[in-house]
């Protein structure tokens, strides 16, 4: 299979930024064309299979003829699926190449900025404020420091059910290390297949348990092999006598395709909120991102759409006009409502969940529209788990009420993740 070189070159010379971006653009265009061809080929072959298996057609064909036709179609389908995997790898390579070029650009901008700042003349009485403004405009914009300082957690904030992972990510033989309110935890499935959450520290020599493995529903420490069940009890101590040892565990539950924990000390809430997408929607992507930002600030951002036409102009808000007034109307309660003039319904569910339904039938022309008037919609779930006061574990679920076939295109998950990261790293 053809493989792109990591560093773009042309006739023995390194490409400049514009040339490299042009090469990347052609790569992505080719990947898009190739993907469309793959999908069309598979659809055509499936139609052939349906035609061969048609009861009317079987009456006029022998068993041998049907077997021969099906064998030929099976071989063609295998070749088509192989081509899909090749396209998937090509897309992944193109995305890696883009990420690498982004690093190169950032590395180039940093020394340029330092040089520009060093070359700046020192302010003097003869230099006007207009001249200073002109010089400052030439410098790259400084990035915002969103890591702190932040206020301490409210004591009652822990007394909620918190989603921390998607069920599909937690296999029987895997574990997921997470941080929650400055404490390290690890989630895994027990012998009964139910999830459990225990302290991510072995009681023996304080080794992080997530560096070990899951064996028969128990998590095994990689240092001396101590094994713990989902309730935190140590059930195996190789090379020594078994004694009564238990590490801290949290109540853990599974619902709506999510793993939930209760990190507080108050009695458990009887019910968990429902985070299922609305009827008629199909889940297309479930993505987890660790963001270096306090979770309250991230929630504020998700609930504030006035920044979108300024910050997200290269992604979902491309073409959005800047209205004279942005309003959030709450006909039902203070925790849910809809935006005017944007076609977006939004709901906040304590302690850290935001659900939104976006009408996308007319991208770039939003004024005068609302979500109900749009024919197609995107539903989003954002879960902002407070890992620490300067870090948030974001769970993002995207669902659509159209184009269900996209879910079965193998490489789409890479594109969804790429777009998701583009949006949320800007926030």
UniProtKB/TrEMBL annotation:
Looking up PANTHER family in the UniProt record yields: CHLOROPHYLLIDE A OXYGENASE, CHLOROPLASTIC (PTHR21266:SF19), IRON-SULFUR DOMAIN CONTAINING PROTEIN (PTHR21266)
Indicate what this protein is called per its UniProt record.
Rieske domain-containing protein
Q: Where in the cell is it found?
A: Plastid, Chloroplast
Q: Where is the Rieske domain?
A: 161-261
Q: Name one GO molecular function term.
A: chlorophyllide a oxygenase activity
The organism named in the record is Tripterygium wilfordii
The record ties this protein, via InterPro entries, to: ARHD_Rieske_2Fe_2S, Cholesterol_7-desaturase, PaO, Rieske_2Fe-2S, Rieske_2Fe-2S_sf
Residue ranges that the Swiss-Prot or TrEMBL entry lists as coiled coil: 56-90
Q: Which Pfam families match?
A: PaO, Rieske
GO cellular-component term (any):
chloroplast
Question: What sections of the protein cross the membrane?
Answer: none
Q: Keywords assigned by UniProt?
A: 2Fe-2S, Chloroplast, Coiled coil, Iron, Iron-sulfur, Metal-binding, Oxidoreductase, Plastid, Transit peptide
């Amino acid at each position: 299979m053809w493989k792109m070189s990591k560093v773009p070159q042309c006739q023995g010379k390194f490409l400049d930024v514009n040339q490299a971006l042009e090469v990347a653009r052609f790569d992505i265009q080719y990947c898009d064309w190739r993907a469309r061809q793959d999908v069309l080929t598979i659809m055509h072959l499936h139609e052939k299979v349906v035609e061969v298996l048609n009861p009317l057609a079987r009456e006029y064909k022998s068993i041998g003829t049907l077997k021969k036709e099906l064998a030929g179609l099976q071989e063609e389908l295998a070749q088509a699926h192989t081509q899909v995997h090749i396209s998937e790898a090509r897309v992944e390579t193109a995305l890696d190449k883009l990420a690498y070029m982004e690093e190169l650009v950032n590395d180039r901008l940093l020394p340029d900025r330092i040089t520009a700042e060093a070359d700046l003349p020192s302010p003097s009485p003869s230099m006007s404020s207009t001249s200073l403004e002109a010089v400052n405009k030439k410098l790259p914009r400084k990035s915002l420091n969103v890591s702190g300082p932040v206020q301490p957690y409210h004591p009652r904030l822990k007394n909620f059910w918190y989603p921390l992972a998607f069920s599909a990510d937690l296999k029987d033989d895997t574990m997921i290390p997470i941080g929650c309110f400055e404490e390290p935890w690890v989630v895994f499935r027990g012998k009964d297949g139910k999830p459990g959450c225990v302290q991510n520290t072995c009681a023996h020599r304080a080794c992080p348990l997530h560096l070990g493995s899951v064996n028969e529903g128990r998590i095994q420490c990689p240092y001396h092999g101590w094994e713990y069940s989902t309730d935190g009890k140590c059930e195996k101590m190789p090379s020594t006598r078994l004694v009564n040892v238990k590490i801290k565990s949290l109540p853990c539950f599974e619902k709506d395709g999510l793993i939930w924990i209760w990190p507080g000390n108050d009695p458990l809430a009887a019910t968990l909120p429902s985070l299922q997408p609305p009827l008629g929607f199909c889940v297309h992507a479930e993505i987890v991102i660790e963001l270096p930002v306090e979770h309250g600030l991230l929630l504020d951002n998700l609930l504030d759409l006035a920044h979108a036409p300024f910050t997200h102009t290269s992604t979902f808000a491309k073409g959005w006009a800047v209205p004279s007034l942005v309003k959030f109307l709450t006909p039902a309660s203070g925790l849910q409502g809809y935006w005017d003039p944007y076609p977006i319904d939004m709901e906040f569910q304590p302690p850290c969940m935001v659900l939104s339904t976006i009408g996308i039938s007319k991208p770039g022309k939003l004024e005068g529209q609302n979500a109900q008037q749009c024919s197609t919609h995107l539903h989003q779930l954002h879960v902002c788990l407070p890992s620490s006061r300067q870090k948030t574990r974001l769970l993002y679920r995207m669902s659509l009420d159209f184009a269900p076939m996209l879910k079965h295109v193998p490489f789409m998950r890479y594109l969804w993740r790429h777009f998701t990261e583009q949006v949320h790293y800007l926030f």
